[in-house]
Target: Aquaporin Z
Amino acid sequence: MGKKFFAEVLGTFILVFFGCGAAVLMGAQIGLMGIALAFGLTIVAAAYGLGAISGAHLNPAVSLGALMAGRIDATTFAVYALAQVAGAILAAAVLLLIASGGQGYDIAVNGLGQNGYGAGYQGGYSLTSALVFEGVATFIFVTVILGATQSGAPAAMAGLAIGLTLTMIHLVGIAVTGTSVNPARSIGPALLVGGTALSQLWVFIVAPLVGGALAGIVHKAGLTRAD
Model:
């Protein structure tokens, strides 16, 4: 379990460091498409590099979906979720250290790739829009993960399918919420940015967890299983 814990810490660190890092350090140069690809490609890298150790969940919503689907037990879920949040916080801290060395960087202005909604954030979408998007997108994401990793699925393609799905979700959702579908990914930056990011954080914990849990329940019921 110690090796799995470390794999989830490292994998989530990779996701947040490169995904949020793309937004903070290179957002103006690479645009929304580049940011979406950064998040998707980090999942591909972590899936193939660490998947054999822990499954590379890197996301409490994914782990909750796996729990509800009967893939892991409650203890494993708790260990994974703790590791994922720790990895995300560590990545956000390292990213802040790097960004702070740049000319003109101000965390209050430039942020750390935190999620949000409402006036002044991206497209200014409402709370309802944020909740619906995050819940639906996470349901789809976890459904793809459970399907791509089920018995009989082409194992060699799972990481690519999951990474491309996360890219697609970002292409649709960056303007809505910055795209979370991952409580850990949201917790790390929000804790350091504070303010509105922290007060809105509950949305990016509750909605993804609900979406992930529903995906697991539906999968366990056999509706999204091949067998």
The chain has nine helices and no strands. The domain at 1-221 is CATH 1.20.1080.10 (Glycerol uptake facilitator protein).
